[in-house]
Amino acid sequence: MTQRHFVQTGLFFITTNTKDRVPYFSDPAYARAAVETLYEIQYLYPFYLYSFVIMPDHCHFLLRVPERGYLSKIMHAFKRGTSFTIGKGPIWQPRFFVRLVTDDPYAFLKYIHRNPTKAGLCEAPEDYPWSSASGRWDIHEFGWDE
Fold first, then answer.
1. Cβ distance 14 to 101 under 8 Å?
2. Distance from C-alpha of 98 to C-alpha of 113, rounded to nearest angstrom
3. pLDDT tens digits for 121-134?
4. In this structure, how many other beta carbons lie within 10 angstroms of the beta carbon of residue 58?
5. So what's the pLDDT on residue 145?
6. How many angstroms separate the CA atoms of 76 and 141, rounded?
7. What is the per-residue pLDDT across 25-57, written as a single tens digit (0 to 9) for each?
């Protein structure tokens, strides 16, 4: 079922958890599949991706959904696509947390990038491979004219 929100476009901070907080993404192949699915979904439902992190049992995203876009479609497609790709059936909690970012977006970006260091998964944000902080993935630079 698709989670519906009153606001479907704008700059959002999103958190989604795996079902029962099972650490599926401790497996590097599954973490890579989640990142690749995120980019496939971006092609199908265009949005600006500013930062992300795929943690063992949850994900954070900072993204902007343009006019005529739908946050609920993006998240539904990401969760469904990731589950299908790794072949584990329904792996996600049915809903996700979303916050419309109206204040300092860099605070959210820093939070996302520091999440693996806070969890003890690496010493520096750029050391964690399943994050936009690593520099391995294509992300959009902040721009307010989009």
1. no
2. 17
3. 999 999 999 999 99
4. 19
5. 43
6. 25
7. 999 999 999 999 999 999 999 999 999 999 999
